[in-house]
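User: For a benchmark we're assembling, each entry needs the component sequences followed by a predicted structure for the full assembly. Here are entry 17's components. Please fill in the structure.
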Amino acid sequence: MFSKILIANRGEIAIRIIRACKEMGIATVAVFSEADRDALHVSLADESYCIGPAPAAKSYLNQEAILMIARFCGVQAIHPGYGLLSENAAFAELCEQAGIVFIGAPADVMRKMGDKDMARHTMRAAGVPVVPGCDLVTTPDDAKREAEKIGYPLLIKARAGGGGRGIRRVNSKAELEAAYQSAAAEAKSAFSDGALYMEKLLEHVKHIEVQLLCDTAGNVICLGERDCSMQRKNQKVMEESPAVCVTDDLRARLIDITAKAARQVGYVGAGTIEYLLTQDGQFYFMEMNTRLQVEHPVTEMVTGIDLVKWQIRIASGQPLLIAQQDVHIDQHAIECRINAEDPEADFRPSCGQISLLHIPGGPHVRFDTALYQGYVVPPFYDSMIGKLIVSAKTREDAIRKMQAALCEMVIEGVNHNAQMHIDLLCEPAFIDGSYTTDYLANRKA
Amino acid sequence: MTLFNKWLFKKPNNKLEGSADVQENPADALVACDSCNSSFPAKTLPEQDYTCPRCGALFTVSARQRMRWLCDADSFCELDTDLRPADRLQFPGYAEKLKKAQQESGEPEGIITGTATIDGLPCALFFMNPQFIMGSMGAVVGEKITRLFEHATEQKLPVIGYTVSGGARIQEGIFSLMQMAKTSGAVLRHSQAGLLYVAVLTHPTTGGVVASFAMEADIILAEPRALIGFAGPRVIEQTIRQKLPEGFQRAELLLVKGFVDRIVPRKEQKQELAQLLRLHGREAV
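Assistant: Structure for entry 17:
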């Protein structure tokens, strides 16, 4: 086991990891930017070091500074959290060369899954259904030929894609060439890689993901699925587990195929495979997240398994002590992401000092946050300021509990989206679980 | 104003989970550049010739490391390995300092001398060691250099010398200062025999070493940005009470002023020295 870990992240996830370390008796080292001097993770860790100015590129993404602090403090491992350096294969390699364990997936798997085209190929080879489409297309004519086979509407996607860039929707043959050229140009400037492939556009789909935990000895367990279909501009806002739309039979198939895929790629650590689920019950591989996810507490609440602790144990070489048959999901959990943004002004990010804070409590209510009263939410980073998670025996009870918890929550000083969540919980599409990824885009506020 | 601080939170009394198998970190797996503060894995240092990939600053390397870089494999034949320093003046703390330096560097003194081939060309060489009291020149250092030049004169060998030094060794008082005259005499006789002497001045080469054999070479090369001078810049600043200009006493300025003949990066040194030996050899024929 590691006796000291550096946490290369900020906000609620840094605190989540520090808490796990404190329970495990591991000393913690926090790093922070000049804008985060007063952040909670800085005070909560045993040691804290400033690694640069406010912009993440100069601080939280400053690999050299992080490694230097790691060496200086004598840590044995670095936990990257989510976002930032968590899926950076080069950083993982740098850590390895420096003799420090990167708590995450192996660098080669990260690289394989980061390349969307390669990920498609790898998953297809592992027997995972992928969205009908084609391999890389090199010219607009080439694309036209393939498009006839796939059928419209379709999506042109960049091989190196991420953050929604390099993606174009094509409704008909007439739009193809223009879409091809602009996607290629955007991908080239954003990722210096203009390579494109095409996929059939699946509409009115569910975003379902399966949580994995794999150890170095090759043991793989799946911790059920999460329904993350409530999205705004490709950003999840609400997640729940289990998914209403996933039948027992479908769940068994999802778990089986996910575990097979994980074994095939030699996965180690905590990871997630995301699928698109169509109305007729077909599921297709979308992407693999080789890291801890924002919505991991949902799975923790339904399984009782601490994902962060297991990440650390696995990274230190310990085998998984849980078998697939030990995973029982007999709870329903919902998570609402509380973002500092103004729902009245097209969700523009909001920042400022928290003048009043009341965190909801009671049994099976969890609020993961880095807020405290008097804290100033800086404008430089992600707008998520907290995650409210509840669990109960049934989905209906969980919705009731979430309603009560949201209404008890008080965050004053910044605008936030709690009211939107309160409204959403009452809407028929949420109550019957039929909401799809385009629900929020088409919803009239 | 920070509202929270570390004193507000108590430290939980939790023992390390599964503490029987604590993982240890390999020491010094990362190195940091003193000049630009960037850090990178120590493993990659040799392939970068101990040069910072970010700013080009040079890392300190031991005498033996330089010998391994420069000489053809297994060609180095070390001379005078039995000479050991002595605390003749009973200088306070010197005996302990010597012991510590010997332990840290793994060498009995601050220099290694010997003969070897570079690209197949025979020569005599000396390498001063920055890890031994900053390459300071005591009686043994002076004696080994003198004997090397005498040996080279006898064997008609050119001499290549890598210097790095803080100057004469204070703890040996007048004995260390005498080395300046002694080594200079040996260099002169080697020169009078028509033999080549090339010095490579590395960071830092100062004091009595500069005032003797370092600056007496036929060809004087230097490493980029090496500090080369008699009195160090801090001593000068404190004496004249003025801030010294940027680049003062650096190899680049000395090149302009004519004290140094060429600045050679580490990567090119072996090739450069072999070329000089080759040219010299042909000329001598």
